[in-house]
């Protein structure tokens, strides 16, 4: 067995292919590890029907078709229950996208040949540590991928404190690489009396990259009863699933798309991590337990929105323990101070056991957090013992606005510049992330440029009028008394969501185009049940075998439709004008690939914009905290 197999592949791919970004190389390797698992699985179940010799082809298109057929056969196998429908489509698209992006049959064949030395599933499972080493190397070489990985020491302490048991469901709404889910499964196997423990694992993530890594990570750790779902956990959830154990390390920062978050949330502010906290407690079964990592700002956040969330937490749930952790524990993702909340759905909070992990120094890339750092905490927390670094917070004596660090600061001769130092750490972290995002953006644009040139030679484009491939109607007038501030159905006007309604007029995939005034020509791709007002046009794809709806939306958004508007007092667009718009369409498979590229580019640009806004906010908060420290006694 070659323990360094996966890392060796990473080194060779970065040297001999056009891929220079570690994250992209790991995605390529992970895809082929997954595909090799499929071969082993089908072979051991006597279902491998494809001619394995197809991989000897030098034609990347033949290789792509072979692997897509292999995957499709796998998902139709009767025993495969662990991947949802959206992930099927994403992985099929990824197979094409990644192989096209590499555009090097020799690298593909080298990967396939190297992995073919793993002859059985039994041997495949022996590479779990090797795959973990590959993930850690990715984090060290590409700081931004730290957002998908929780340090092992934090994972182990969260699982140890919750002590998940057999026969229960374990859920992570922001699963990343599924480290928390895998460690929970290992804990159950170590402590269960049942030789074949029966538990279920559920993980959600908005990143198709993270979902792929999660699937491979779970499979290689010999997990089979799992479901990894490509979705935003904060979006409306009609099923309202409940779980026995919830563990998560959610993304930090601010959420710019609050319209997608469930309208019934108690928290209404901008912080994404607070929305995840509310989702976590809402996802708990009665007597269920949760552990969530948050920035320490939550403990002393005095904003009214955060106070409302703390009210809900304290009155309905039992916040049993807070573990305060020095800054730098999540590097290279972020350097901010952290806390872990341990919560149970067993009634209101009475007394919170607060423990301050005091190492006397900050964590860093070279001084990482370790499991041994928590030995004393585990001993004390189980007995809830008071020491110099641990105490109780009696919620009955803690008045609104619930500053849970007051006693902490009193014990340590409250530092006037406590907030300032915290703000500086966060600003440094955000600037580091910004540089990482800019570097990634540069690499993605260079990669796109190369591949687009290749596609422009390989594909023929068909010119066609929109009216021949889509049905276009005007929206409907909605009476003012039916436009609600909250409701199940979003109402779209000329510039996005303007309110809600109890009734839908359109379903599935739609393109909404602003029709009247300064907003005419705005283009939005929308999924789900919606109402569209008469200030917009609705475009419905009637040729799904010819055009991909999200691709068409992106294409229309580049055409400056507003220039088609007529009228003097108030400009407007007509259905006839949109029907007559002519577009050039590549083959459907190419549309899928281009759409995926553009989504990834949009995601990177959105992160870039969020970081710019965070840095602006950091500057203002730093100024305010310094003034407060100097002027307010």
Automatic annotation (TrEMBL):
Reaction catalysed by this enzyme: a 2'-deoxyadenosine in DNA + S-adenosyl-L-methionine = an N(6)-methyl-2'-deoxyadenosine in DNA + S-adenosyl-L-homocysteine + H(+)
According to its UniProt entry, the protein's GO biological process terms are: DNA restriction-modification system; methylation
Record carries keyword Cytoplasm: no
MF terms in GO? DNA binding; endonuclease activity; N-methyltransferase activity; site-specific DNA-methyltransferase (adenine-specific) activity
Enzyme Commission code(s) on record: 2.1.1.72
**What residue ranges carry the coiled-coil annotation?**
424-451, 598-625
User: What protein name applies here?
Assistant: site-specific DNA-methyltransferase (adenine-specific)
Q: What is the lineage of its organism?
A: Bacteria, Pseudomonadati, Pseudomonadota, Gammaproteobacteria, Enterobacterales
